[in-house]
Specification:
Shape: globular
Number of strands: 18
Helix content: 40-55%
Distance between the termini: 96 Å
Length: 574
């Protein structure tokens, strides 16, 4: 009787509130009368019991002759009032007891989902003091990598770029930008100080997935054919016939570079796995494929996409000292004094260093269990930890894995785990970005993407809000880590406003430094961009941060390669 009284009071509250006043207008008279009788009966029963109800809200509402569930935490349904009693002769108060038990279970699962979120947020936390520790560790690895090949966890590769464009370059140059699942070919006309980039044409092509894990010859033949087809579209005025064309080759994968136009592939990243290219000179492989196409073209400069971005920025502003890629993958390069590069024995004043910061340069990165799982299931387990936490190729999948954990351990989307949620490609970073920036009152875009991408319909507002919170945690961690990396390079070259001299006095009048950034993640994910800029100011302080400008450098990896080909001594212009 106690249970019946307690649950009866709960039902009485629900039915009574659903049938009183104006809210009962749409309820059929028999149902309304019956509801009032039960409410009255349950109130009487409740008042004679020593137990009391602790129900907090209306769990049912009446519509016609039906009682409808309103909980968003498990599948909804409707049950005719009369059928509810006829089903097994069970009193309504007993049936409500079962429903309350289900709601309690639903709340327990919801609390478990919140617990998973809080745990993930805690692991992803990046307070400034932790970031400064990572910066110090980063600089130590940078110095070790500059001292000798393989000396540190950061590769610190020599690029052999010791001459950057200054705006005086003229002529017509081609560029090939291979940096991810797509590649571009460009034709650029340079007009010096007065003309700048006078004319540019480009074409983009996707690399078929089977070629990303195929053979070396198949991959380069496909690229060379697209390049040859593009070169044949040139008009006579733009590119005179019969000339040997000059190409700047942006190759955005780790290479051991031996000159300005030669370099051996160390390993593939960004989903590529073409084993017979590893260890080979990618310039020779490309030029052989170009020759097979019957095209008169030679590679004048081999550069990384970060180097191309730096060159593009430096062509416009000579204060550009650092460039960062934040797109499908991530990397950074910077201008280093030759005296700080023990492993370089040339006569140059400076050299652009390719840091390859996407590698696993720290054991203290804030990694969660989902990061460990992502790494274990990747094509390069144990490598590229930083890239797997920061770049656009992986952020959407980190989100998916957190939601999968909630679905598995806390039944976030019901008793069955959505099958599409098991697919690594079901939630991409662009979809994550769209959900993160949903500003509608009911988070309609979040609901639409969850429905289309993982097959979950009719999600409650609370669930959608939870998804946005996960997006925020993933994006904030990535942006703050990338921002800390920028601060680390600034500190390495003495442009962070830090102390100097034996007395520890603060350096004043720090020179202006421009950081050129290219990549869709930074360009098209506003909140990521906001978090990155904010952490740089937080770490440097407002005064020093005023001397640091982080600027979007669009098309840096394409035009930049042509610019380096133009200023390379071995690359005469057309």
């Amino acid at each position: 009787m106690t249970a019946c009284t307690i649950n009866g009071a709960f039902v009485a509250k629900a039915v009574f509130s659903s049938t009183g006043g104006e809210s009962s207008a749409g309820v059929a008279a028999p149902a309304r009368s019956r509801a009032q009788q039960i409410a009255s009966s349950c109130r009487s029963s409740s008042s004679s019991s020593s137990s009391s109800s602790s129900a907090t809200s209306c769990f049912f509402h009446l519509q016609g002759s039906k009682i409808l569930k309103r909980s968003g935490y498990y599948s909804s349904g409707d049950l005719p009032w009369s059928a509810a009693r006829r089903k097994s002769g069970t009193p309504v108060c007993t049936m409500a007891s079962t429903v309350v038990s289900k709601q309690a279970k639903g709340r327990g699962n919801w609390n478990k989902s919140l617990s998973i979120l809080k745990e993930f947020q805690s692991v992803c936390s990046t307070p400034a003091e932790s970031l400064w520790s990572l910066v110090d560790e980063m600089i130590a690895e940078m110095e070790a990598g500059l001292a000798k090949e393989g000396g540190g966890k950061m590769r610190m590769l020599l690029t052999f770029v010791d001459n950057l464009p200054n705006g005086n370059e003229t002529g017509i140059f081609y560029a090939l930008d291979l940096g991810g699942t797509n590649f571009r070919v460009l034709r650029v006309q340079l007009g010096g100080k007065e003309g700048g980039v006078m004319r540019k044409e480009s074409r983009e092509a996707a690399i078929p997935p089977e070629l990303m894990q195929g053979t070396n010859r198949e991959l380069f033949d496909y690229i060379a054919k697209e390049l040859a087809d593009f070169a044949c579209t040139s008009d006579e005025n733009f590119c005179p016939r019969g000339t040997r064309l000059q190409l700047g080759f942006t190759f955005s994968f780790p290479i051991h570079q031996t000159s300005i136009k030669s370099g051996n592939l160390i390993n593939w990243t960004k989903g590529f796995a073409v084993p017979d290219t590893v260890g080979k000179d990618v310039v020779k492989e490309l030029e052989a494929a170009i020759t097979r196409q019957g095209l008169e073209m030679r590679v004048s400069a081999l550069v990384n996409d970060t180097v191309g971005t730096l060159a593009r920025g430096h062509f416009v502003d000579e204060d550009v000292m650092i460039s960062v890629i934040l797109g499908t993958g991530t990397n950074a390069c910077y201008v280093e004094d030759a005296g700080a590069i023990p492993k370089w024995h040339g006569r140059s004043r400076f050299m652009v260093i390719n840091t390859e910061w996407g590698s696993s340069w720290s054991d203290n990165l804030p990694r969660a269990d989902v990061d460990e799982a992502l790494d274990a299931e990747s094509i390069n387990p144990g490598d590229q930890f930083f890239e797997k936490m920061v770049s656009g190729m992986y952020l959407g999948d980190i989100l998916r894995r957190v939601l999968l954990k909630m679905a598995t351990e806390a039944q976030l989307f019901g008793d069955e785990v959505p099958s599409k949620l098991l697919s690594p490609l079901s939630l991409t970073t662009p979809k994550m970005c769209a959900m993160h920036h949903d500003e509608t009152s009911d988070l309609h875009e979040v609901g639409r993407i969850l429905s289309e991408s993982i097959g979950v319909d009719d999600t409650s507002l609370e669930v959608r809000q939870l998804v946005v919170e996960v997006c925020e945690a993933v994006a904030m961690r990535a942006a703050r880590l990338a921002g800390a990396g920028i601060v680390g390079i600034l500190k390495k070259i003495g442009r962070d406003g830090s102390t100097s001299g034996e007395n520890g006095s603060v350096r004043s009048g720090a020179p202006r430094t421009v950081v050129a950034v290219d990549g869709g993640l930074y360009e098209k994910y506003p909140r990521f961009q906001e978090h990155l800029q904010k952490v740089v100011v937080e770490m440097l302080g407002e005064e020093t941060a005023q001397q640091v400008s982080i600027e979007l450098s669009q098309d840096g990896s394409g035009v930049g390669a042509a610019l380096i080909a133009a200023c390379c001594p071995s690359a005469p212009s057309v």
